[in-house]
Amino acid sequence: MKTVYERADIVPLLAEIFRELGYEGTSLSRITERIGIGKGSLYHFFPGGKQEMAGAVLADVDGWFEHAIYQPLRKDDAREAIAAMWTNVNDYFRSGRRICLVGAFALDETRERFSAEIGDYFIRWIDALRSALMRAGCSEGEAQTLAEEGVAGIQGALVLSRALDDRMVFTRSLDTLAKRFDSVMR
Amino acid sequence: MKTVYERADIVPLLAEIFRELGYEGTSLSRITERIGIGKGSLYHFFPGGKQEMAGAVLADVDGWFEHAIYQPLRKDDAREAIAAMWTNVNDYFRSGRRICLVGAFALDETRERFSAEIGDYFIRWIDALRSALMRAGCSEGEAQTLAEEGVAGIQGALVLSRALDDRMVFTRSLDTLAKRFDSVMR
DNA sequence: CAATCATTGTACCGATCAGTACAATGATAA
DNA sequence: TTATCATTGTACTGATCGGTACAATGATTG
């Protein structure tokens, strides 16, 4: 019996494991056990080992945000794109039950391995959000401050809702942030 | 030659290591190497091993916040205590170069080991902040929302400033939060 | 069919993991 | 002094770490 995987099938499964266990906490044995895949397959798709696996996951996450969040913020109707951001972010992070892998990597020494990818992810998020806010009528300084506040607020809401084990905290925080944005944009 | 340590001397050193490396990333060999202490001493003070070390660090952190942040928020002049919170938090987290150990533990499976301590730390922070906000004139609902926003904002600012490797982001975020609090409290 | 090649499971490697055992050291006090 | 006891460094344990080697399998192509 031989189940054939593709690299693209494995990346989302890896993402969930890295999310739950962190980079250091994710061991190859836990990967093989949870995915049901052997080391042979794993190193066939990711010759660079654990580092390449985490890198592929980061690239996948980045790609999702670029397509679903950043591009609409840069190109689409500003108010609609911002409104869509709140709902898409709430869905993506499963109302706070899922964490942000990039944010988690930023907190410990894993940051050193992926500092470029981590920095890029947040820079582009803030820039795209600032672009939308300016098109919605904010001044550049106001937009920059609000964009940082929004992205940081989302990250903090993830920490808080997990710490309190209460998904309502996340949804409520997003709602509060959305109201703040609305009040500034009018 | 024999350098005599006390448990109380070691805890802050352990805290810095757990902060940088995370729970899983902190190995006993890195502890002994960085502190310059042998395993004998380590297990003499912490017979419960790594778990007890991290627990002692969490208790130490919690004690500092209780004394320096929570109690003033509950007892002292509300506006002064909130103002002091921003400056003390900025100092404690070294303008974002230091992370919040409790927040970091909340993000990965380490949460399962210390869920009670982690939840307690944030619950008490939010409660103390809400108490101060209500004494400063906020309604209960307004105070609860703002307290959650403040604590989450601090955690998010830590993630963001580390991700961007820019300490100005942290100081600026605290400043923005402080201004928001001021505008609501008037 | 034969040949090729991607994919797989498993056995194995040296290094490091958390934790234990214990004798040596040094301070304290009778 | 001697006895006691906290503190220490070091050697060791079995388990697990990330990574490699490689033969077996199955699909594809000639």
TrEMBL record, chains A, B:
Residues 4-64 form the HTH tetR-type domain. Coiled coil: none annotated. GO terms for molecular function: DNA binding. It comes from Rhizobium laguerreae. Keywords: DNA-binding, Transcription, Transcription regulation. InterPro entries: Homeodomain-like_sf, HTH_TetR, Tet_transcr_reg_TetR-rel_C_sf, YxaF_TetR_C. Signal peptide: none annotated. This is TetR family transcriptional regulator. It comes from the Bacteria.
